[in-house]
Amino acid sequence: MAAIFLEIPWAVVLILLPLSGAMACFLWPAVAKSVGLVTVSMLALSVAGLVWQVMEYGVYRHAVGGWGAPLGIDLYADGLSLLMLAMTALVGLAVSIYATGYFEQPHAARFWPLWLLLLAALNALFLAADIFNLYVTLELMGLAAVALSALSGSRDALGGAMRYLLATLLGSLAYLFGVALLYHGFGSVDMAILGQRLEATPIVWAALALMTTGLALKTALFPFHFWLPPAHASAPAPVSAVLSALVVKASFYILLRLWLEIFGPLGVEGVETLLGLLGAAAVLWGSVQALRQTRLKLLVAYSTVAQIGYLFLAFPLAAGSGITAWNAVAYLALSHALAKAAMFLVAGNLLRFGGHDRIADLDRVVQRLPLTVTAFALAGVSIMGLPPSGGFIGKWLLLEAALQQGRWDLAVVMMLGGLLAAGYVFKVLGFAFTQAGVPHESKTVPASMEWAALLLAVAAIVLGFLAAPLLALVGIGAPFGISEVAP
Amino acid sequence: MNWNAWLPLLMVASSLLPGLVIFGLGEQRFRLRTALNLSGALAKLALVGWMLWGVYHGQHFETRLPLLPDLDLVLRAGPLSLLFVTLSAGLWLLTTIYAIGYLEGSPHRSRFFGFFSLCVTATVGVAMSGNLITFLLFYELLTLATYPLIVHRGTEEARRAGQSYLVYTLCGGAALLLGTVWLYTLTGTLEFTPRGFIHAVGEEHHLALVVIFILMIGGLGVKAALVPLHGWLPKAMVAPAPVSALLHAVAVVKAGAFGIIRVVYEVFGVERAAMLGLTGPLAVVAAVTIIYGSVRALFQDDLKRRLAFSTISQVSYIALGVAIAGPIATIGGVVHLVHQGLMKITLFFCAGNLAETLGIHKISEMNGVGRRMPWTMAAFTVGALGMIGAPPIAGFISKWYLGLGALEVGQGWVLLVLAGSSLLNAAYFLPILYRAWFRAPADAWPHEHDFGDKETAWALLLPPVITALLALGAGLLAAAPFSPLEWAQLISQREFYQP
Amino acid sequence: MSTAFFYALVGVGLFCLGLYTLIVQAHLLRKILAFNVMGSGVFLVLVALAKRTEDALPDPVPHAMVITGIVVAVSATALALTLMLKLAKETGKAELAGEGEE
Q1: Do A335 and A382 meet the contact criterion of CB atoms below 8 Å apart?
Q2: C-alpha closest to that of B342 among B471, B253, B246, B477
Q3: Which of A67, A158, B31, B84 is paired with B296 by a 20 to 30 Å CA distance?
Q4: Which residues of B95-207 form beta strands (DSSP E)?
Q5: Which among B27-36, B370-379, B482-491 has the top mean pLDDT?
Q6: Pick from A173, A176, A184: which is nearest to C49 by CB?
Q7: Residue A190 carries which DSSP code?
Q8: Hey, are the CB atoms on C80 and A143 less than 8 Å from each other?
Q9: Considering the entire predicted model, what is its pTM?
């Protein structure tokens, strides 16, 4: 019986299932909620199946339609893809549970098809093995995400979505230009083949510049972050959660893959330094801006800008630290996804409860919405990088990589980032205990919404104890290369 | 089943699990809550007893779980861990009883006791940690668990006190983390080893080691309230009395002092630390803190604030004992961990009684209170005399050993500090005693609660009396086997100066 | 220089012109048009670079990429136009609020 489960092409299922689910939800809006929830649950199981499959058989490569590279589309799953897929499935499941309580018709009829399309795009992106397929999935994801963020139809939401759309399209176009140049230079779009054939020519520098800039724009790296706060803050809470947790990680994932497989071996120190510098600026600037916010959703959005900066701090450290820096990135990305999604869901709960998300007027919610505040506190612990949490493990690994190479500047930035994060997290928690100046009418928050947020936050904490097995999983297929420096 | 590998973890779980359940209880379920609290505390004491017996018979207790690819979470029972754990477990039981009485009728008790249990969990974790990363994990957990207790009342003042607390402790935690990771990159290990584990680090990293030491002691010194990192402590007095008692006698402040002991003896090794020139400045900082705390205490009218500054002063005796770097001084510093805990918690319990029963918050309101609350003030007197260093109470023993230890290594100036501090202690404690016993009371107490014939509720009266008796016993029976002093001597011999 | 290379340069030029307009112009319809011009520029580059040598047949793979790209651009433009219309209905003008500030 078990053998049958191992033989199913889970990677294909991961893409086809949400696609068909999206169609079903679109055609039969009355049952959209149930279809959506069932689809996402089955997605989670499929990811588990794929993980099992890869652990048994090693790296998974599947030629769609029987046509292999360089003409066909390949699906490729190694440890890093698995991590991202698992992240998507976990966050997706929690957000779906939350959405069943959050959206009523007619919004629900619009939400579910778009959400499942987004999931299909994300899964396809994490399984892609060539750079053009990445472009297609990137665009699919971007369009679904924009449509989702415009869902509420308010003026702020439409403006934020428009800005997001323009930024994301610009980014993809720059990326496509880079793909064109690379194909022209080396005759293939398959990442593994490109990695073998690449040499340092002007075409490659141009492609590197274009693709990195385009992806940095989509990942909201400082100074390209301008579109993120308005879009993430004005979207409905579950959509904001997905945008911050998953969508920005997808473009970062592409950047990471390009770096690891294609551009990294070229030894471009200038670009590494630049990315590190921008990452540091993001950490500091984003954290300071988050501290200044009076509304919770904007605070959480700026926190995303800051946390993305941490991911880029690894680029200057990667060459000298073996796999420690990249392991840190994997852990930070995963913990941030869980914690940030939890935070946005909390913001949604507070909005539903009090009708507003002003931080200073949180009116003793610690007593009236204890699950929600606990979720925020636990998520905050991970964001601050305090033990025990996934964020702490990521921070430890990144600090280790930095101090090993004497990079004091980066270490100080990390510590400052953590302290500033503590500033804005505890700003919110402190006000959760005090009474508001003017009491507000409160509405009940469905249990599904509170528990979804709490479970995500608890997952971020539990992640702090799973470092050893998880990092072993990520290492399948050696996505980060063989480490040159012995630990 | 190999119990020895699980016992340390069970020890931590014995307060974690009841705490998590208590969070979910409704406000009215006070019987269940009390049952959970007390059973957790008693279970922990039972486990401590088991462990003590086991270690005495040469058994080995260690829990080891993988945390990072090359680092484990290690909980280990050694003499120093057991000293701190026994103190914590015993005082937790008493503070729980006290808190149940103190918070009678207060709102949000489930939340309070839940976080209370988390605090003790973190403290036990700090005590039993076997390497620096485990220590760091529980140390930061302690910060997080104590914050909600400080802001418990939900007033603007409480929120700001909590904010100040966090600024200090999180910056301290950041310094500690930085020092720990840096040390790890130099040594490749973080396991607590008697006499330190940095021998292999070469000469060229001397400056790095000095900076790491400063970072670590700075990080630990925030919780241990070394001057100038002590600012959070007086402000945290806004919390309810059981919190002040726990924070100042058992959990936070002791965790910092305990960390300093661990770092100097089992990370750097006291000989290496002295060679690097680190113990001298530490002794000076400790001495300055001792005098400064006492001087500030003189000028406080609020009783809890006077006790807060007294704590700042007294905990640095432990740091001083460590910094003097001699075996006898070590005994003095380590045993003061226990003695100061017992005496200070007595004083805070009594302060809480005065506030709860008679509405007294200021010393100027304490005239004649000895006649109204004799048992409470008797316990207070024992505690105060112990702080001054009057024999036969425990405080005298600690000061004696510290003085002897200073002479042993030729640091005579320490005697001046000790003498000066004792004089200052007398100067701010004796007037309180005089007021309480020998002055006539005012016409009415600020806010009296009626307890009938009794002085005050049993739950409020029993704990301070017990801890006062323990403080007296620790001093009187110091030469008996299994006294804290014997234990400290064992630690000093076994862990620090093995042949 | 070969014709193909000339067309490729024109494509780059279109890309840059479109980029400039996208950033500078405030009206959303102009931004969307600019984006389409940029897209056409990239497609032109792809097609031009597909002709590797004078006499050989052009490489069909970039052509396939262009077709895919056109499909994506059409969908994206449709979404953008819909958003623009809704925004114009809500706010009365087809511009992003706070244009130029950040």
Answers
A1: yes
A2: B471
A3: B84
A4: none
A5: B370-379
A6: A184
A7: B
A8: no
A9: 0.91
